Amino acid sequence: MTPDTFTRSQWYAIGRLPDFEGAEAKPVRLLSQDLTVSDAAGVLSVNDADGRSLLTQIRYGHLWTTLSDTPRPLYDMPEFDEPDRRLVTVGGVGVRCSGLRCVENFLDMAHFPFVHTDILGVEEHPSVESYDVSMDAEKDEIWATKCKFFQPMASAAASGGQMTEYKYRVPHPYSTILYKTCPIREDVWDLVGLFIQPVEEDECIVHSFILVFDEENTDTGLLHFQQNIFLQDRMILENQVPRKLPLDPRWELPTRADASSIAYRRWLKANELQWGVALFNEAA
Amino acid sequence: MIADNDIALWRGEDGQIRAWENRCPHRGMRLSYGIVRGNTLTCLYHGWSYDGAGACAGIPAHPDLTPPKTIRAKAYRAADSGGFIWVANPGETTAAPSIDGDWVPNRSVHIDQAPASLNELADGMGAGLMSKITDHAAIVRVPGVEGEILLAFLDMKEHGAMIHTSVPASASEDAAIAVSKLSTRLRQVFKASSAA
Ligand SMILES: [Fe+2]
């Protein structure tokens, strides 16, 4: 299947800047296409298999490209311009499933006690209180707000259990950002997010970042915390059947805790996204 | 696997064997990663639990919610007999095999090329059919090997086939070893290249 218009019109992160230092036609795969990245004296360029030069931009610590000549603008994260924040980029991790499944897993609090046991949740507190899900019509993005969850160790800087407040944002079919209560500062949010590079319909590379106020942990400490969480998720993601995301409501049954996932699937459908989607009755 | 469908097998405290589609109806997680407690199976992803009949019995995210009856794991038919676990599609109406006597599972081997029939499999093993149980299982005898052998195969099409054998609980160690060797030899008989 060739990517639908919505999928094709997006910007995608394909790596961090140091990943392409001195690159000479370094191969990169995006949306089932072979691309190359080259570094000419610090200027990165991306070409497709026919030698056509693609649009690029450097933002949020990553190199972004698009197959479209008229892409939908990349979403804003003003927090990246705030002083004193620390940015840690985790680097790409390959996952054998649709990137759409990764976004959905990221939005999901109900799995914390079972998959991230004693870190992001405990089995004694599995309950998911209702939260608000809304569409920002102007920016065409999804927000889940007033999400609260009991966490024994919400982040690398957390010292004990707390009710953590979350906001989730989905501004792009393959990107999602978590805003969570900062354990050491009031009235600000720490950010954790995923920039997913869809490689094939059922295969992706997840580039993640952490943008936090944290004076205690080293970059390596923050990186290890995030990597540990993500490896626990990957074990789940690679064992979901089918590997593509089913949008047909007959196929997977949600409950109230899945309100953000329901909104996400609905939004993908409304935008006529098809690439990476499992068709009902299609062999898994 | 039957007919390309992944199956999760599990046994509760009651000892009963169950064969379910290997995916949680919630978000498709393989149930084979789940945890058996008593007579329920709990999915690893969100802790949804299912009773022995496949009905959802609990959703931890909503402790006060009685799960809707529509949430069910797809159950295949499953039975124990002759030292084997037998599985059939939910709509299958024929009775599960009931094989007389005490049998001990002997060997399960994978072969590259599925035999076209039970006869072809028996021939490949140098065995004679004594009595047929299903189109894919029979009691056979092999000249020079003491006692009967229960022989079955699962046709997995392009993925080859699984061959299973059981021997009577009374079989001698020599007989059991002989059957095990015969099973292993089937890998050579039904090699991908020989049938191509
Ligand atoms: Fe997770």
From TrEMBL, chain A:
Domain Vanillate O-demethylase oxygenase-like C-terminal catalytic, residue spans: 96-270
The keyword Chloroplast belongs to this UniProt entry's keyword annotation: no
Keyword Oxidoreductase set for record: yes
Organism domain of life: Bacteria
Alphabetized UniProt keyword annotations: Oxidoreductase
InterPro entries: Cholesterol_7-desaturase (IPR050584), VanA_C_cat (IPR044043)
Protein's name in the database: Vanillate O-demethylase oxygenase-like C-terminal catalytic domain-containing protein
A Pfam family: VanA_C
UniProt GO MF annotations: oxidoreductase activity
From TrEMBL, chain B:
An MF annotation (GO) of this entry: iron ion binding
InterPro entries (alphabetical): ARHD_Rieske_2Fe_2S, Cholesterol_7-desaturase, Rieske_2Fe-2S, Rieske_2Fe-2S_sf
Listed PROSITE patterns: RIESKE (PS51296), RING_HYDROXYL_ALPHA (PS00570)
Superkingdom of the organism of origin: Bacteria
Rieske domain mapped to chain residues: 1-87
Keyword Translocase attributed: no
Keywords: 2Fe-2S, Iron, Iron-sulfur, Metal-binding, Oxidoreductase
Annotated Pfam families: Rieske (PF00355)
Name of the featured protein: Rieske-like 2Fe-2S protein
Native organism taxonomy: Bacteria, Pseudomonadati, Pseudomonadota, Alphaproteobacteria, Rhodobacterales
